[in-house]
Amino acid sequence: MRHSVIQLVPRQTGPSAPDPDTATGRSCDGRAVYTVAEVARLLSLSRGSAYASVRDGTIPAIRVGGRWVIPKRRFHTWLDGLAEGGEH
């Protein structure tokens, strides 16, 4: 029987480390989406304002069952576009 060897590499931290949320659309917890409450905190908005922005399409979101979720990759792309002066 043949065994594989896995080399463990220390995780990079600091400004040069790749951001798992923007690089893959997933965070360390394995989730690919944010909740509206999480986006509200990230943007320093009230939950009500975040929900209003989700409903009117300003913040990219999808409805899954009875709840709104914000795909991380789409959110960060949208946010990067705002920072670059793009109109979204």
Give a short summary of the structure.
By secondary structure, the protein is of the alpha+beta class. The protein has four helices and three strands, in the order αβααββα. It is globular, with a radius of gyration of 17 Å.
- DSSP E strands, number: 3
Inertia-based shape: globular
Beta-strand share of residues: 5-15%
Q: What number is the mean pLDDT? A: 79
Please compute the radius of gyration using only Cα atoms: 17 Å
SSE string, helices as H and strands as E: HEHHEEH
Instruction: Return the structural class.
Output: alpha+beta
How do the strands line up in the largest sheet?
1-3-2
Number of H- or I-type helical stretches:
4
Low-confidence stretches: none
CATH architecture field of one domain: Alpha-Beta Complex
Main sheet, how many strands, which sense, barrel? 3 strands, antiparallel
Fill in the CATH topology of one domain. Molybdopterin biosynthesis moea protein, domain 2
Could you give the distance between the termini?
56 Å
Q: What is the C-level CATH assignment of one domain? A: Alpha Beta
Helical fraction: 25-40%
Notable characteristics:
88 residues; alpha+beta; globular; Molybdopterin biosynthesis moea protein, domain 2; three-stranded antiparallel beta sheet
